[in-house]
Amino acid sequence: MDFIELHLGSYMISHGYDKHNNEIFKSIVSEKFSKKLIAVSRIKSLSEKYILTDYVDGRWIYWEYEEDFEEVIQLLKNPS
Fold first, then answer.
1. What is the pLDDT of residues 45-58, one digit of tens each?
2. Reported pTM
């Protein structure tokens, strides 16, 4: 299994959708970034601010990351 190392901070957990098809979020604010390993197979999407990954029970989690967008792209091209 391939992993990348990122510094992750605040995050939002997606709990699904309400009856109006609006996504239901729980936001957690972190005061600092922490180094974490992310399994590449869990990654669903990447934006300039968030990396979207699988979470528990079919949920998704949007992590804020500290690295530069292009740096993360390079890590994804060459995971360890």
1. 999 999 999 999 98
2. 0.87
